[in-house]
Amino acid sequence: MSQNLLARLTRHRILATIPHEQVAWVATHGRLHHLKPGEVLTAKDSKVEGLHIVLDGHLSIYVDRGAGRRKIMEWRGGDVTGLMPYSRLVSPPGDVAAEEPSDVITVDRKDMQQMIHECAELTAALVHIMLDRARHFTSSFLHDEKLVSLGKLSAGLAHELNNPAAAIARSASAIATSLAEADASSRALGSSAITAEHLAAIENVRAACIARNTRQVLSPLEQDDHERSLARWLKDHKLDSDRAETLAETGFTLEMLDDLARSLPPQTLDAGLRWVAANTATRRMALEIQEAASRISHIVDAIKGFTQMDRESVSEPVDISQGLSNTIVVLRGKARAKAVSLTLDVADNLPLVNGFAGELNQVWSNLIANALDATRENGRVEVSARRGQNGRGVIVRVTDDGDGIPPGIRDRIFEPFFTTKPVGEGSGLGLDIVRRLVQRHNGQIEVESEPGKTEFRVILS
């Protein structure tokens, strides 16, 4: 036993009040480590060698709980760490490393039982330290969990608000021009020779255009073909063919034009077409703003529910068809910007599903937005809803014709913060949110993917 080592132990803050023979026991059984700055005393997930008595220097433990590497505890000369008497500690939650040159005496794990038997006062002092350490770690980990939860909540909120906020900005910037055209077309229609029967025919076409607009977005190639066919029709009927683009965006079909041509005299047809196009465009923009604002309201309500966990929420029958239609409205601009065809096909008389409408809309929004991102220009995204097996429940399918999900990452796509998108374009939370919300509704989510076809299926009972 080194007398110098015994003297250093005697001056140690914890051991200074311990009987001399017990300090001598530590000096006899302990091993002295000289650690360099950055040297790891005990690595994460490795077995703790034993009790560590810090004579000089500075040690720290770093833990990464999802919010980045963070120092949660440190020890200096006069402190103790490592395995304590009666402790069940096996490995530390992070690396314990030297911040500066440090001297540490280690009492091996195999000698701990003998220390407990022969050094009662030292054991009692170490047990008190162990209890204080447990309280500190518990408090630190709770703090970390709150930070991680806050980070997930903030990232998820930004992710969810992005699409409806963009839809509001886009429609609000265009609605003033659309309103001016609607006023002008109304005056033109009012000055034409119009009867009640003519007006009824125009109203029927307008209603059909509005319904069609909420369910389908054509790809640029499909849109161009449609415009050409409308332009030919207008030219054949001696009307302004330059209006074909506006009519195509409004949702006019050749069948609708034929119906109007049979119902209206030539002098009223042009004014009627102009009025339907302007009125439908304005209503479409207003509907986009309304639905996007409603989506934001639902998201805010969901955040309120998250922060008030003690308050009960009650599920109610949800119309899946309406939720999907609303989602298509909100994401129509994203599809057009990406030059992707987006279609919705919903079976008649779908059963209602018990759940939370706002949360299910989050599911549809995430799945459809991801499908749009995965599809190349002029691609297709198809959304459908059908009755489940035996006519019970609903199965929603979101299918895209993108490159598919590589087999190597298919099992990881639902992990939080996992994303294949470039930095700054994806939070990695969309599918994690989807999985959690589907589970909350006692549903299932399945995925099949190959180059040219990826299909997500949500099964709700």
Task: Explain this structure.
The chain has 461 residues and is an alpha+beta fold. It is built from twelve helices and 14 strands. It has helices spanning 3-10, 20-29, 112-118, 120-190, 196-213, 220-236, 244-250, 254-263, 266-307, 320-338, 357-374, 430-440; strands at residues 31-35, 40-42, 50-64, 69-76, 80-82, 95-108, 216-217, 316-318, 341-346, 353-355, 380-387, 394-400, 444-450, 453-460. Helix 4 runs antiparallel to helix 9 (266-307). The radius of gyration is 34 Å and the shape is rod-shaped. The relative contact order is 0.08.
Highlighted features:
461 residues; alpha+beta; 6-stranded antiparallel β-sheet; 6-stranded mixed β-sheet; 14 strands
Total beta strands = 14
Task: Figure out the total of helices.
Answer: 12
Using the CA coordinates, give the radius of gyration: 34 Å
What class would the helix/strand composition place it in? alpha+beta
Spans of at least 5 consecutive residues with low confidence: 305-312, 422-429
Overall average pLDDT:
80
| Gross morphology | rod-shaped
Give a quick summary of the entry.
The protein is an alpha+beta fold. Helix content is 52%, strand content 20%.
Spell out the blueprint of helices and strands:
Blueprint: H1 3-10, H2 20-29, E1 31-35, E2 40-42, E3 50-64, E4 69-76, E5 80-82, E6 95-108, H3 112-118, H4 120-190, H5 196-213, E7 216-217, H6 220-236, H7 244-250, H8 254-263, H9 266-307, E8 316-318, H10 320-338, E9 341-346, E10 353-355, H11 357-374, E11 380-387, E12 394-400, H12 430-440, E13 444-450, E14 453-460
Helix pairs in contact: 1-2, 4-9, 4-10, 5-8, 5-9, 6-7, 7-9, 9-10, 9-11, 10-11, 11-12
